[in-house]
Amino acid sequence: MADSETLLFSIKPIKIGLFGNPVTTVDIYSNGLTIERKNGVEEYAFADIEKITADGYADKKPRFIFISIHLKNAKKPIEFKLHRDMEDTNALLDSYSNFLLGDDFPNNLDALDLELGVLGSCYRLQGGKIVSEYGTIIPLSNVVSLSKGRNGFYKVKVKGMKHPLGISPREAPNIAASLAVLNEIISRNE
User: Is residue 144 part of a domain?
Assistant: First the structure.
C-alpha cells in the first residue's frame, strides 16, 4: 500500500498497557491503511474492512475516542484509543467514508447501499429509501433534521414518526458516512 499510494495522514494512538502488541501508528491512504504494532506492520485495503466504529465520537467532551476496526474475515477487531482531538478521528473516518460513498457522492445517493447504525434496529440506506430490518420503509423525502443528542448519539427527525431515530457512533459502520448521507438527504429536502 505504501508503495502505490500517497500517505494522507498518520495517527499516533494513545499508548496503553505494557504487554501485548498495541497499535503504535496508523497510516491512512486513499485505498486503505497500515497498522504498525510493536511486532510489525499490517496492511489493510478498505475493501477488506467491514466497519470502523468510534465510541465517544458524539460526546461533548470525550476523554478519548475508542476506535474499533472490524475486518471482514477476522474474529476480533483492531482496537485503539485516540486523543479527543477530532482531527485524527475525522481523518480516519473520512477516508473510509470516501471509500464507502464513492467518487460520485452525492450524485449516487439513490444507488447507495449503506448501514446507518440506528439504535435498536438496523436501518439501511437502500434503493433510495431508508429500510429497517423489520420492513419499515422511510422515503428520503421524510427525513427532516439531524441533531446531536445528549447521550453520545445523533437524532434524526422523520415526518410521520413520533420519536426520532438514534444514530450511534458505536454502532454505525462509519459515522462519517452516515452523517454525510443524512446531511445530503436533509439538504435535498430543504
Answer: yes
